[in-house]
Design goal:
The structure is a single chain. By secondary structure, the chain is of the alpha+beta class. It has one domain (19-135): Immunoglobulin-like. The protein contains two helices and eight strands. The chain has helices at residues 2-17, 51-59, and strands at residues 20-34, 40-48, 69-72, 79-89, 95-100, 103-110, 115-121, 130-135. β4 and β5 form a beta hairpin. The mean pLDDT is 89.
């Protein structure tokens, strides 16, 4: 009984002390739906760490540090956005730590030449990698 407990403790220590730190990204598929009747031509997107950053860049879209990646909208095809993520995995493969960018900043370009900046929450990339973003009407 004591031997089993000791082995379990040793394995737990080995599992939590070793492991790997990793940095990567995943492709988020974004379906854009215009709710205002205006046609979307394309735009640009970037994943940002949190809501504060998304709100800041939405207000100040020319601020330094923003690196929007341009995209063209192809009928019925989702837009692909790279979402950075990183974490730590234990020796035996358990996730010890995981984080990713949590908000998407989108610049939507319309066929009439106008633009709009919107934000959307990004779901946990380990569970879901496709979202639908409804582009609201311009009031």
């Amino acid at each position: 009984m004591v031997l089993v407990a000791c082995v379990a403790v040793v394995l737990a220590v080995i599992d939590s002390m070793g492991g790997a730190l990793w940095v990567g990204h995943f492709a988020l598929e974004v379906d854009l739906v215009s709710q205002g009747g205006r046609q979307i031509r394309g735009g640009a997107a970037e994943a940002v760490p949190d809501k504060d950053d998304a709100d800041y860049y939405q207000r100040f879209s020319t601020a330094p540090g923003l690196n929007l990646e341009a995209f063209s909208l192809v009928q019925s095809e989702p837009v692909l956005v790279r979402v950075p993520c990183h974490g730590r995995t234990s020796t035996f493969g358990r996730d010890l730590f995981y984080t990713q960018a949590r908000y998407l900043l989108l610049r939507v370009d319309y066929t009439d030449g106008s633009r709009r900046i919107i934000t959307a929450a990004i779901p946990d990339g380990r569970i879901q990698r496709r979202i639908t973003v409804k582009v609201p009407r311009v009031s």
